[in-house]
Amino acid sequence: MSYDLNSKKIKNREKLIKYRKAFKEKMPMAEEIPQGEGELNRDGNPKIPPGQKVVESWPVLDLGVTPELDEFNWNLTVSGLVKHVKTFDWDAFQELPQTSDVSDFHCVTSWSRMNNRWEGVKFIDIAASCEVLPSAKFVYIKAWDGYSTNLPLEEALKYDVLLVHKWENHPLTKEHGGPVRMITPQLYAWKGAKWIGEIIFRDYDELGFWEKRGYSNTGEPWLNDRYS
Ligand SMILES: Nc1nc2c(c(=O)[nH]1)N[C@H]1C(S)=C(S)[C@@H](COP(=O)(O)O)O[C@H]1N2
Ligand SMILES: [Mo]
Predict the structure, then answer these.
(1) I need a labelling partner for 130 at 20 to 30 A (CA). Which of 7, 32, 174, 202 fits?
(2) How far, in Å, is the centroid of ligand 2 from the Cα of 32?
(3) pLDDT value at position 188?
(4) Which residue's CA is minimally distant from atom 6 of ligand 1?
(5) Which residues are within 5 Å of ligand 2 (an ion), measured at CB?
């Protein structure tokens, strides 16, 4: 097998990289990429990614098992390429810097829920608290229902990637991954594990549950990058 540098997928990705660079440097943007509809959001992407429909309610999507977790028995272990391996219980998690943000949630099955108000901890603050080593390049995540997902460290460290425990000013419900789940607003929502249990920093990539079953490893909503 060999890759084709002229493939649409690689060309589109190259365009997106150029576009993001131009947006960051406030340079004129010639290319009609990324795709989508609406005003540009704070990341320079059209508000609604291509092929998405905005919903008002928040659907539940998972493997069909809801682990019995609450503030008393939940915990999160951070390991791999870190200086300090740590397990956070609810109290330790609450002691991390708390933040709030409003962001959009895009499911690959084509619904988007916009302007969600979240409270929680930035992924980057967890990474800092465990002192991630420079050799770490990927993140592998395990959840308490047996789910897993993976992402490049660079994506996980984006400012809006959070481990949330409140949605719209209420504790995150069990069905949506409470007490604590991850969100990845700039990637499809499957990259954000509900009932998050383990974060492992690695120098190699391993496909997670859906990535192994044909979902794209990158999952970029504004490239319509759904399947591998
Ligand atoms: N632990 C776990 N996390 C998960 C999933 C899952 O099955 N188990 N499904 C993913 C998918 S495909 C989506 S779209 C979102 C759905 O989150 P929601 O049910 O809160 O809408 O969670 C993601 N995180
Ligand atoms: Mo999804």
Answers:
(1) 174
(2) 26
(3) 98
(4) 62
(5) 61, 107-108, 190
First to last CA, the chain: 15
For residue 179, report the distance from its CA to the centre of ligand 1, in Å: 14
Q: What is the largest CA-CA distance in the chain?
A: 53
Dihedral over alpha carbons 206, 173, 221, 185 (to 10 degrees): -90
pLDDT in tens, 58-101: 999 999 999 999 999 999 999 999 999 999 999 999 999 999 99
Tokens representing residue 46 in the block: 């059209």
pTM for the model stands at: 0.91
Smallest CA-to-CA distance from 186 within 127, 105, 111 is with 105
Fold designation for 47-60+68-223:
Sulfite Oxidase; Chain A, domain 2 (3.90.420)
Q: Which amino acid is at 83?
A: K
Task: Give the start-to-end residue ranges of the domains of the chain.
Answer: 1-33, 47-60+68-223
Give the closest ligand to the alpha carbon of residue 59. Answer: 1
